[in-house]
């Protein structure tokens, strides 16, 4: 029997799990939404709990030169990004640590310093967890946020014909940075190299962008699995087509030179890198105009990269020569 890959395992979990009044997040969305009223206790029926989790495993998630503080910080960024991509502030976290016997006390202390630093920066409390002995560093983060029924929480399946497709940041630095770290590739200049490597070693969630803007979106997710994967999820789950204008995607001006000088595919760097932790969403024309004051007030930038069209779950790229190209989703998947 052929071994199941990550997405097939997630599909199997979805078919077996599923609790009344709870939306499981296994593969369906970034977060699970739970009505506290559904728990049968005398709680405010207008209050909801949002939960997500993510696991860092050393051999797949920790690139060369990453410090112990950076490892700890990265282990929490994905969960923070999942929540804020829905406009939900992180409130609490449970952290489980798998630690090798070979780790020194000072190294464990640095891991804990990193966890503490992130919780202070993003104003949430670490309230517990578990510790076990493992062959390599493993950090599992389960994070909680809350919101009222008055707040719109955009899912991946809400994109509508005529919506604009928007992103929160620049694509290409992270995929370039990882290749520089892993293969010591040359860069067009030192500034590009520094920004690329820093995007890998010190990833940052689009916190303010998500908290202030996500409630205006019709759909959203983050780009932790790559831009192509994010677009594909929104298109398929919303049963629409997405038309992306190639020249409107924000990329570093040196990215084409970097890809050319190292024999790399430009599209791979832009669409399939992953771990940028930018927010990818869709928004109506009315709401796009409405958020202009919010963008100015909080000094935020939003990039419009395309539009939502009638269709059945496909993503197309409008190339600079005027041709339309189907964008295939072949990003990183565990167990393949």
Question: Which descriptors would you attach to this protein?
Answer:
alpha+beta; 60s Ribosomal Protein L30, Chain: A; Phosphoribosyl-aminoimidazole Synthetase, Chain A, domain 2; seven-stranded mixed beta sheet; six-stranded mixed beta sheet; 13 strands; globular
What does this structure look like?
With 336 residues, the protein is α+β, with helices and mostly antiparallel strands. It has two domains: 15-148, 60s Ribosomal Protein L30, Chain: A; 164-326, Phosphoribosyl-aminoimidazole Synthetase, Chain A, domain 2. The chain contains twelve helices and 13 strands. A hairpin with a 5-residue loop joins strand 12 (315-318) and strand 13 (324-326). Helix 3 runs parallel beside helix 7 and helix 5 crosses helix 6 (190-201). The longest helix is centred in the N-terminal third of the chain and has 17 residues, at 68-84. The two termini are 14 Å apart.
């Amino acid at each position: 029997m052929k071994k199941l890959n990550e997405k097939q395992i997630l599909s199997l979990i979805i078919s077996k799990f599923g609790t009344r009044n709870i939306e499981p997040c296994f593969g369906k969305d970034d977060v699970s939404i739970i009505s506290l009223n559904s728990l049968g206790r005398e709680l405010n029926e207008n209050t909801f709990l949002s939960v997500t989790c993510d696991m860092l495993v050393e051999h797949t998630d920790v690139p060369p030169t990453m410090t112990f503080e950076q490892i700890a910080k990265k282990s929490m960024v994905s969960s923070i990004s999942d929540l804020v991509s829905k406009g939900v502030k992180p409130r609490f976290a449970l952290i489980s640590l798998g630690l090798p016997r070979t780790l020194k006390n000072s190294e464990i202390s640095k891991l804990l310093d990193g966890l503490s630093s992130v919780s202070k920066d993003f104003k949430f409390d670490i309230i517990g967890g578990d510790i076990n002995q493992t062959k390599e560093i493993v950090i599992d983060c389960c994070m909680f946020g809350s919101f009222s029924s008055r707040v719109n929480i955009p899912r991946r399946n809400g994109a509508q014909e005529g919506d604009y497709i928007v992103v929160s940041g620049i694509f290409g630095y992270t995929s370039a940075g990882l290749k520089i770290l892993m293969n010591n590739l040359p860069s067009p200049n030192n500034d590009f190299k520094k920004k690329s490597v820093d995007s890998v070693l010190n990833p940052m969630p689009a916190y303010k962008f998500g908290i202030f803007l996500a409630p205006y979106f019709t759909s959203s997710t983050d780009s932790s699995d790559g831009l192509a994967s994010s677009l594909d999820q929104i298109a398929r789950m919303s049963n629409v087509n997405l038309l992306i204008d190639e020249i409107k995607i924000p990329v570093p001006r040196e990215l084409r030179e970097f890809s050319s000088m190292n024999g790399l595919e430009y599209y791979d760097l832009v669409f399939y890198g992953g771990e940028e932790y930018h927010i990818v969403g869709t928004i109506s024309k009315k709401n796009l105009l409405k958020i202009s004051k919010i963008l100015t007030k909080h000094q935020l930038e939003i990039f419009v990269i395309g539009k939502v069209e009638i269709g059945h779950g496909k993503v197309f790229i409008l190339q600079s020569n005027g041709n339309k190209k189907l964008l295939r989703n072949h990003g990183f998947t565990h167990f393949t």
